[in-house]
Amino acid sequence: MADPMRIRAQAAGDKATVRVLMSHEMETGQRKDAAGKVIPAWFIQEVSAALNGKVVMTAQWGPAVAKNPFLQFSIKGAKAGDKVAVSWVDNRGDKRTDEVTVS
């Protein structure tokens, strides 16, 4: 299983800004190792975020996203004390979900 995501969610007015740093190798499938063999593709395909259990954002990603990707988005209507959960699934079927409380 991948390392935990670093998530910060801060309320400001009627919205919350969420910042996520994901730990993932994000291989494109085009690089070669020292022996000249192609390194297989391994990347996050889907990212989703939920506010108090209700999905508020989904994204489809591909191999062109950088290693250890950073994602920032805003959630309208979020307030301090709400729970934000961020999940991802990669092309190998690995999954990760982490949660934070809006401050």
TrEMBL record:
Residues 7-100 form the Sulphur oxidation protein SoxZ domain. InterPro entries: Ig-like_fold, Ig_E-set, SoxZ, SoxZ_dom. This is Thiosulfate oxidation carrier complex protein SoxZ. It comes from Leptothrix discophora.
